[in-house]
Each structure stands twice: as C-alpha cells, then as structure tokens.
Amino acid sequence: MTASASAAGRTEGSDRLPADRLPPARVALDARTWKEISHLLLNLPMAVFGFTYVFTAVLVSGVLTLTVIGLPLLAVCLLGARQLGKLERFRSRALLGVWVDEPSPLPIARGGGVLQRLWLALKDPVGWRTLLYDLIRLPWGILTFCTVLVSLFVLWPVLPFIARGLSNVDRAMVRGLLSPSDELERRIAELESDRGVVVDTAAADLRRIERDLHDGAQARLVNLAMGLGLAKEKLLEDPDSAAAMVEEAHGEVKLALQELRDLARGIHPAVLTDRGLDAALSSVASRCTVPVKVTADLPTRPAAAIEGIAYFTVSELLQNISKHSGAHSAAVDVWRNEDRLLIQVRDDGRGGARLESGSGMRGLAERLGAVDGLFLVDSPAGGPTVVTAELPWRDRQE
Fold it and tell me: Of 131, 166, 241, 245, which has the fewest Cβ atoms less than 10 A away?
C-alpha cells in the first residue's frame, strides 16, 4: 500500500473528496446531498446505540472493578468499541465519502500471557477514542436529526447548505477520533508485543540448550567419570579390563566433544563469526541431505545479530527441506537491496508448506517479525516451494 493510499482521510474518485475539496452545495438536491441528509438522520439512532453501549460498558465494568471480572470486562468492552468504530467508518465511507484506514489489529495474538493481553487491550488508544466518539455523539445526533428533519419541511431551499455544514463536522469527527493510531502508537504496541516474542524465544533457546547439555554431553561425561573410576580400581587387579574401560572412555570423550561442537554450532557457529554468512551458509548446506546451491552477494557483512538470524533462518529451512520436502535440489540466495537483507530458499519438492502447518515456520515468522523482518511462503501443492525472508540491514560494528 502506498503512502498516499494509506493516509487518513484518503480520497479516490468523485465521492471521496475531502471537505475542503467538495463541490459547493447547491440549491438542487443532488445525490451527494441526499447521502449527507441520510447520514445526518441516521446519527440519532446510531448515537443512541453507541451512547447506551458506552454508558453500560463503563458503568458495569466500573462497578465490577471491585471484583476480578471488572478489568477483563472493560477490556472486552474496548474490543467491542473497535467494532462500533468499524461500523461508523463504513457509514462515513458510504454516505460522506470519508475514507480512513482501518486501525491495525491489537498485537495480542503473537504470544504473551493473559495479563499481557489484558494490559494491551486496556490501554488500546483506538478503543478509548471510539468510546469518546460514541459518548459525545448523543447530543450531536439529537441536534443534527432535529435540524435536518425541520429543514426538510421548513427550510427546504437552504437544506443543501445546512446538510453540508453539519456533515463537514461529522467528517472532522471521523477523521479526528476514528482514524488509525499514529505511527508512534502502532510502533509502541508492536514493539511491546515483539519484546514478548523475543523474551519467549530466548527462554525457549535456553531450555533447549539446558536439555541438550543434560541429555547429551553431561550424561556422557557422567558415564565417562564412572567408567574411569572403575578402570582405576581395576588397574592393578585386572589390567586388561582396565585398558578396555579406558578405550571405551576414549570413545565416550570423542562423542561428548562432537555433541559439544554441535551444540556450540547451534548457539553460534565459529565459521559464521570468523568467515561470515557466505561461508557459514555453505557449511550448513553441505550437511543438507539435498544438493544445495548457495549464492551470496554481500559486499560487506551485516551486523552480527542480523547475520545470526539470517544463518539460523536458512539452517532451519534447509532442515525442513531434508525432512519433509522430498526435493531433489535446493538453492539459497542471499543479497542486499538498499537497507534490506533478502534471503530466498527454493526447492523442487512436493510443496504444500504453510505457516499454519507447523510451529517451526510460525516460529521463524515471529522471530523475523520481532526485528522488523518479513517472512513469506509460496508453496503450492506439487511444488516448487519458495520462501522469502527480509531483514533490516544494519552495518557491522567492528
């Protein structure tokens, strides 16, 4: 969506002109004037409904704040207010030609606990502005309804001018109170949600590392210590058995070292730190069960954090190709486009991959979203599958 199309109060076509560009009202009642009259007459029933909703919601939830259901009820009422705002924006588009974008949805579905979701809903600026809009609309709805109704029978010649003046006030209210939150409010809400995703992801990674250490290298080292202890006891009594135990312990040491190397590679591979993304991706591609062609066009190295996210994104996608795709070949392309790092992973497998089909894909999308990245999957049944990821480019600080 272009900036001109997304601006609040945007206009397209003859019926979507802003108030300062509307054709002048005329004595003749044209289609635009009849739409304005219809909107003004509908103000009263809509205002009564909205005011009743606001009064009931605030009163009931305010009384119940003394109990545990008060704040959750208020949060639900604020979510309901969003729907009332959506209805009013639709009415304004249809009858007044005022086009404002729908506000961004609350970022409460990306993760976080119940309390975090409740807090985001309670401080939703869109919901509170809609409640304010519905609160002040009752006296205005009575005024506009009575004025237009009287004008229809008494002030017919000047009705178009009256309708234009009153509807311009409505247009201003819609733009002022029902427009999307400004970009700062959106970014604050998104960053708060993304912070929760990052914290949850970091906690999950720590649990994975702890589990791998406990079930892998730590268990082997415990067995190694016990084996060496038994070998020490048998060293004088049964040298042959002791030598066999030492030999077995030597094998355990090799396995433990390999597991520690694999674990370290999973945390941050040394080749990525030393030689950069091109070499690291070539290394991970060599371990894929499908032949992979890697092409990296990066004149400089991005920031270490971005480089790490790019590496683990490709690594997980190649693991998915090995396990699930049934592909015969794959390709990885990495390049820079202005201030974005772009990654594209393709395979000629069976296709059918979806973000909804597995937590791995969803997890990648959430991780990239947490750093202002994008994650797109194009995988029709029968293939091929093309996954495109974008990350913000930040220069590496040496």
Answer: 241
Per-residue model confidence as pLDDT tens digits over 155-170: 888 888 899 999 999 9
Domain identity same for 48 and 85 = yes
- The CA distance from 395 to 374, in Å, is 19
What is the rounded average pLDDT for all residues in the chain?
78
In angstroms, the CA 86 to CA 130 distance is 9
Looking at the domain assignment, is residue 239 inside a domain? yes
In a domain, 191, yes or no: no
- Residue 119 and residue 11 in one domain: yes
CB atoms within 10 A of CB 153: 8
d(CA 50, CA 248): 78
Q: Do 214 and 99 reside in the same domain of the chain?
A: no
Residue 24 preceded by cis peptide, ω within 30: no
pLDDT score of 393 more than 80: yes
pLDDT at 2: 35
DSSP for residue 340: E
| Three-class DSSP category at 375 | strand
Report d(CA 74, CA 78) in Å as an integer: 6
Task: Lowest mean pLDDT of 214-218, 247-251, 296-300, 345-349, name the range.
Answer: 214-218
Distance CA 351, CA 330 (A): 13
- Residue 231 token pair: 């070998």
